[in-house]
Each structure stands twice: as structure tokens, then as C-alpha cells.
Design brief:
The protein is mostly helical and 278 residues long. It has a domain of 167 residues: Glutathione S-transferase Yfyf (Class Pi), Chain A, domain 2, CATH 1.20.1050. It is 69% helix and 9% strand. The protein is built from seven helices and four strands. A hairpin with a 6-residue loop joins strand 1 and strand 2. The longest helix has 57 residues. The N terminus is likely disordered.
Length: 278
């Protein structure tokens, strides 16, 4: 199967049908076309994308500078993304042509889908961090309730020994609140790091798509039409990922603001009650 057909196997049917009045029949997913379908290992995709080395190089055929992945580096991590050409004659701009054997050629669309898997893995990790943040937020609310209970006991008790014990409990509650703040800050830093990694992976995916489209532009008109459809679908996917990231950032900002307000209120209450006891 050719390079373009591996990208979009169904798009040519839609393109041919756009010039005809007769209805078309799309192939059905009945187990005869797609075999051994199973969920992809997005964790591995993320590790592979992080391990790949993006290189700048110059083509010996025309002297043009390019950016991308070198076949030898990719083959050690993603063998299915590299096709080895047994023999190829490479023309030179300043000398006789050179015959190259066992030339590794990178299949960019495969790496593009690895990038999509990596972004999905980052999104899953972000959801897990948000759940962890919610759990710490609930713990902070419970600590605030306990602190309020301690403050009420301080108001009702007048014994010096009992007041000393209550002050100790009050200090313990403050310590727990401080620990909860530190843990919440750590979770937020982890989420910011994941946001940065997701943006890096998104930029890498866009660069890979641009390289693929440059090659597709040299194909015939049918290949160009397939590339346009592929670009639209990928752009929509990128927009959805970016939209999800922005929504997650907005939600995190709201939670952070609410948490800061409640912690600040708790601190003010502690200062007031401590002053009253003293």
C-alpha cells in the first residue's frame, strides 16, 4: 500500500463520489478490513515522543535544510515508522550521483499518531492530577471544620490546662492546613509542567503535519484533495485538544482562587481567636 493510501484509505472514495450523482457504499467495519483492533498504549507513545531527537539536517540531493527525525534514531524506538530502501540513486548538486543502500525513510504519519497518543496520555495524567487536587481540597475543608470546632471549645472553656490543650490542638490544625497548602502547591506545579509538555507535544505534532503536507503537495490532484481533508481533520483534533487544555486551566484557576480565599479566612480566624485567648 502506498504512502498516501496508508494515510487516508477511505478519502479517495469520497473524492470520486463528489463528481458523481450515484450514491456510494462505504466499507463496513465488519472485522474483514481492520484486524486485531485494540486500544493503543498511549503511555508508550508519550515515552517514545519524549525520547525521539528532533534534528536539523541538509539534503544532499538539493542542499535544502530540513527539520525532522533521522531514520536511524527513529528505528531504534519505533521500527514500524521506518521503511528501509534497499537501493536508491541520489543525485548530487556538485558531483556525480551516489548509490545508497539500506536507506532508512521515516514515515511521518505514524509519528503523527504517536504524537496524538502522547497528548491523550498527558490529558489522562492531567485528569488524575485534578482528581488529586479535589481530594486535597476536601481535606482542607475538613481541617477548616475541625479548626472551627477547636475555636468554639476555646470560647467555652476557661480552665488554664484545658486552654493550653486547646491551643495545642489549634497549632496542630494550623500545621495541617500548612501541609495541605504545600501539597496543593505541589499538585499545581505538576499540572503546570504537564500543560507545558502538552504544548510542546502539540507544537511537535503541528510541525510533523506540515512536513507531511509538504510532501503530499508534490503528489497528483487526488493526493492533494486527500491531504486537505486530512489537514482539516487534524486541525479540528488540535483545536479540541487546545480547548480542553484551556478549560482545564480555567477550572484550576477557579479552584485555586477559592482555596486561597478559604485558607486566608481560616488564617484570619485563627489570629483573632488566638488573640482572644491570649
Amino acid at each position: 500500500m502506498s504512502f498516501c493510501l496508508q494515510l487516508l484509505v477511505l478519502v479517495p472514495i469520497l473524492i470520486d463520489a463528489s463528481h458523481k450523482d450515484t450514491p456510494i457504499t462505504m466499507p463496513h467495519h465488519n472485522g474483514l478490513y481492520y484486524l486485531d483492533v485494540k486500544p493503543a498504549n498511549t503511555t508508550r507513545h508519550l515515552e517514545v515522543i519524549k525520547s525521539l531527537t528532533l534534528s536539523e539536517y541538509t539534503l544532499s540531493t538539493n542542499g535544502r535544510k530540513r527539520i525532522g527525525f533521522v531514520g536511524d534514531n527513529v528505528a531504534s524506538l519505533v521500527p514500524e515508522a521506518v521503511e528501509t530502501i534497499e537501493r536508491r540513486v541520489v543525485p548530487s548538486t556538485n558531483g556525480p550521483a551516489t548509490q545508497i543502500t539500506n536507506l532508512p525513510i521515516v514515515h511521518e504519519p505514524t509519528l503523527f499518531w504517536y504524537g496524538i497518543g502522547a497528548v491523550q496520555e498527558l490529558a489522562s495524567e492531567l485528569d488524575a492530577s485534578r482528581a488529586n487536587l479535589d481530594q486535597h481540597f476536601e481535606s482542607t475543608v475538613q481541617l477548616r471544620s475541625q479548626l472551627h470546632h477547636v475555636e468554639q471549645l476555646l470560647k467555652r472553656e476557661s480552665s488554664g490546662i484545658e486552654q493550653a490543650q486547646l491551643r495545642s490542638n489549634n497549632l496542630k490544625a494550623q500545621l495541617l492546613v500548612a501541609q495541605a497548602e504545600l501539597e496543593t502547591q505541589r499538585v499545581q506545579e505538576d499540572q503546570e509542567y504537564m500543560h507545558q509538555q502538552a504544548q510542546i507535544e502539540l507544537n511537535h505534532t503541528n510541525r510533523t503535519l506540515i512536513l507531511a503536507l509538504e510532501r503530499l503537495s508534490k503528489e497528483d490532484e487526488a493526493a492533494q484533495a486527500r491531504a486537505d481533508a486530512y489537514m482539516i481533520k487534524t486541525f479540528e483534533t488540535t483545536q479540541n485538544v487546545e480547548r480542553a487544555r484551556m478549560e482545564a486551566a480555567e477550572t484550576l484557576s477557579k479552584i485555586k482562587h477559592q482555596r486561597e480565599m478559604e485558607i486566608q479566612q481560616s488564617k484570619e480566624n485563627i489570629k483573632v481567636e488566638t488573640a482572644k485567648v491570649s
